[in-house]
Amino acid sequence: MSEEGRTGPDGGSGFVNRRMTRRMLLKAGAAGVAATTAAKTMLAGDAQARGEAPAPPTLRFLTEWEFDYVTAMAETIWPTDDLGPGASVAGVGYYIDGQLAGSWGQGHRLYLNGPFFQPADSGHGWQVPMTPADVYRAFLPGFDVYCKTTYGDAYPQLPKDKQALALGDLQSGKAVIQIGGSTAFTSASFFSMFRQNVIEGMLSDPAYGGNRDMVGWKWVGFPGDPMRRGDPYEKYVFTTKRYPFEDRPMPLQPAAAKSGVASGAGATGSKAPANAGSNASMGGSHSSMGGSHSSMGGM
After folding, report:
1. Of 250 and 186, which is predicted with more confidence?
2. Omega before residue 115 within 30° of 0, cis
3. Is the torsion defined by CA of 113, 117, 197, 149 positive or negative?
4. Whole-angstrom Cα distance, residue 36 to residue 289?
5. What's the number of CA atoms in the CB half-sphere (13 Å) around residue 72?
């Protein structure tokens, strides 16, 4: 007799005393995940309906101190000004946090066994036995010391002009900051990597944590992913009908997204579309374009 068919002493199901089979555990786990996801979705929808800001994402790698530092530095590169929202509004810090926690930050595709050397020119690849996440964690405290000794305060507390000077010192290599007891990875190397991460966070798909409300796409005039917004985009594919939002992005509307995804997936015969969870599990970066609204764009 199978374990699932046994009954308890009272002739009932005997669930309390019955051993859980693997199939039962999987079923229970799936039901629990579905219920939790549905509850979170309902709560998020209620908050949006009340006009409340959604709760910030949970940090996956960065500490609060590191997150504040990264956000302040990113805001210098892509500031909030009269041209539009900047890095802090777009959630670039959360994008970087997600990337550092994922496969890129953990160096899954980097060769880390050496020998390493300090090249005289470009094209030699990653030349330190540290992952990008390790580099961020080691570099930020050193930069904090540099800012305090050179400009008198921690970077987030500096006035904007001194923040720009401090980042300029990184870009030029003037700031000598050792990580792991080596100068092979220079401050200019970190600036180049960090600036690229900021641009990605501003212009990548919002599923990766940055480009909140598609503010980066709105700034460059990219219409974004219509299926993410919930449009029945398949009605415009391979037809002569003009897509009405081709030259401007529109904000994601939860109600429209729900109906749009259902109709879009049904019409094309596809499975459920990719979401933030599946994208995050891949750990990859998905920057759409390379333009920059950067105050330090020429650096």
Report:
1. 186
2. yes
3. positive
4. 35
5. 23
